[in-house]
C-alpha cells in the first residue's frame, strides 16, 4: 500500500487487508493489541495462515485481554502461535486495538459499534512513536500467556456454569453450593470472570458474553 498521506482512513476489514496485506508480509516486527482474536486475524484466515508460516522469520508480539482464554479453542490457538515463536501476553487493563509494523506504521481500529468499522493507517513518525510507547507500557505490565493461563484454568472450566448462574439471576449461595465451593470463593470467581470479560458489573455480563460467543 502506498500512502498518499501519513494518515489514511479505511472503512471495512476487506479494504483494510486488501490495501495493507503486503505491509504485513514485508514486516519483520509486528506488535498487535486486541480485545479478542476477531478484530484482526480471524477476519482473513488466509492471512492468518500466512502469518503463522512466517513466525520464525519475524518478531511477533500479541497482547490480548483475559477474555480470549475463556474459550478453549481460542486458548489452544494462542498456545499454538506461541509454539511457533510468537510472544503472547495477557493484560487486564483496557487497551486500544492496534497493530504496529516495524515501528513505522500503526493501524488503529475504530468504533466497533458502527455498521462498518473504520481503521486508521498512520505513518507519521511522531504519532507512531507515541502509539508504540503506549503499547510498550501495556506490554510490560501484562503477564505471559503461560503464566496467566496457569491461573486461568479453573475459571475457564467453571465459566459456562457461572455465566448461566449470572444470566439467570441465581443467588450466590445457591450457585456456590451447586459448584461445591464456599460463597466467598464463588464471589471471587465471579470477580475474576468480570475482569476476563472486560466488564465492571454483573449487569453487563450477558451482553458481553454473547459478543464473545460464550452464550
Automatic annotation (TrEMBL):
This is LuxR family transcriptional regulator. It comes from the Bacteria. InterPro entries: WH-like_DNA-bd_sf. It comes from Amycolatopsis orientalis (Nocardia orientalis).
